[in-house]
Amino acid sequence: MNRLATDERAAVSRRCNGPHGGNGENMGFPNQTPRAFTRANVEAITPGQFGCYGLFINGGGWIYVGKGDIRKRLLDHLNGDNPCITRNRPTHYVDVVTDNMDALEKGLILELQPSCNRKVG
């Protein structure tokens, strides 16, 4: 892996797991390797896993935080269900399976301030 790719992975990791994403010290997503937001990656998710997910641009910012059946919702987004998401073209996603979707989603939106979420609070 070249230096640029390593630097980009570190930046993504900081965004997903650092001060704005969760390293066990705050609300964000658990420590994980972000996955490319592609149909193949999303279709590989086991159906029926409920929780929260976040879409972002590699080297950019958070686009959207959502909840529900993770696979179904991400496929909906790939199929263009939300014009703001489609327009912003997220490159990666992270997710967390949880029974506490509503509170977690609200907290993540407040913390990460994704550009395509309506204000909550």
Radius of gyration: 13 Å
Average predicted confidence as pLDDT: 83
Q: What is the count of distinct domains?
A: 1
Count of β-strands = 4
Biggest sheet, spatial arrangement of strands = 1-4-2-3
Topology at a glance:
Elements: H1 3-17, E1 35-36, H2 39-43, E2 50-56, E3 62-69, H3 70-78, H4 83-88, E4 92-97, H5 101-112
Antiparallel strand pairs: 1-4, 2-3, 2-4
Description:
By secondary structure, the protein is of the alpha+beta class. The protein has one domain (3-112): 3-Layer(aba) Sandwich (GIY-YIG endonuclease), CATH 3.40.1440. Helix content is 39%, strand content 19%. The chain is built from five helices and four strands; from the N terminus they run H-E-H-E-E-H-H-E-H. The chain has helices at residues 3-17, 39-43, 70-78, 83-88, 101-112; strands spanning 35-36, 50-56, 62-69, 92-97. The protein has a four-stranded antiparallel beta sheet with strand order 1-4-2-3. Strand 2 and strand 3 form a beta hairpin. The radius of gyration is 13 Å and the shape is globular. The chain starts with a helix and ends in a 9-residue tail after the last helix.
